[in-house]
Design brief:
- By secondary structure, the protein is an alpha+beta fold.
- The chain has one domain: Alpha-Beta Plaits (2-Layer Sandwich).
- Helix content is 24%, strand content 29%.
Length: 280
């Protein structure tokens, strides 16, 4: 049965920003409850990745990553404000949102997710470890003529390392981010054959008033910077010689604390690969 199209769909595209630029992101690290791993993976890939994300306006790229048990055990610090236990959060979901359209997208996604919940299309047996909409602060690439930030989720990078750094009390997020740009990221991307191809930085927003009931802000959101390092190789290959030292470097900078350093590898969309490697 055909229906008349809503005229708003003809008018809304005529106004407002629509450049191909990242303005914000949805970053979500989630832990499926034990025993539901396959059901969760299939629900997310077969339904929610699209109906709860990419089908919505102004979200133009998305990618899933996974931390198998051996990757979870590489995380630090042990006492983390973000994840307790530090191994919590098997899956990382990243989505880019068009510059100037983050608020528009949030309004749409909030309404959609309440509809999905009412229609029993939300897998409730999972925990949101770290989920928020985040403003894009900028990115740095190891090669000037390499892929741009907008390509990061479509490039096919085999792995990422997500880092969450909180500014010390009395230090602003802006001061921390300046140090990250000027000192930390160049050190992370050092060397002609380093593993980090791109580093993108984000500032989490407080969750909206009409957030879903199973997500919550983590204390200190106003002092927090999220970094996503996109890798040209499996993070395990250089973990001990590179990434395991990042926390010490942040401490030495004197402006903040590494609250989470966590490696992931890319999922194989449309499969259950890695699902049987999430637990001991």
């Amino acid at each position: 049965m055909s229906t008349e199209p809503d005229p708003a769909y003809s008018e809304l595209p005529k106004v407002g920003p629509y450049a191909v630029e990242i303005g914000g992101a949805l970053i979500s690290m989630v832990e499926p409850h034990p025993g539901t791993e396959i059901a969760y993976n299939r629900w997310y890939e077969d339904d929610h990745f699209y109906s709860g994300a990419l089908a919505m306006p102004w979200m133009f790229a998305g990618k899933r990553f996974v931390a198998t048990r051996d990757l979870q055990l590489l995380r630090y610090p042990e006492q983390s404000l973000i994840a307790q236990p530090i191994t919590a959060g098997c899956y990382l979901h990243l989505y880019w949102i068009t510059l100037g359209r983050l608020d528009d997208h949030i309004r749409w996604t909030s309404a959609t997710n309440y509809r999905l919940r009412a229609d029993d299309r939300i897998h409730l047996e999972r925990t949101h470890v770290y989920t928020s909409f985040q403003d894009y602060l900028g990115g740095s690439t190891a090669e000037a003529d390499g892929p741009r930030d907008i390509h990061a989720l479509d490039r096919g990078y085999p792995g990422v390392v997500m880092e969450i750094i909180d500014a010390h009390p009395g230090t602003s997020r802006e001061a921390l981010d300046t140090w990250i740009v000027d000192d930390y990221v160049p050190w992370v991307q050092r060397g002609p054959h380093g593993p980090v191809a791109q580093t993108l930085r984000f500032a989490p927003q407080p969750l909206p008033d009409d957030k879903q009931p199973d997500v919550a802000d983590i204390e200190g959101v106003e002092r927090r910077v999220t970094l996503v390092h996109f890798l040209d190789q499996d993070p395990r290959l250089r973990w001990m010689t590179r990434f395991s030292r990042h926390g010490e470097r942040v401490d030495a900078g004197g402006l903040g604390r590494m609250e989470l350093c966590a490696p992931f590898v890319a999922v194989e969309h449309g499969s259950n690969r890695y699902v049987d490697e999430l637990r001991d």
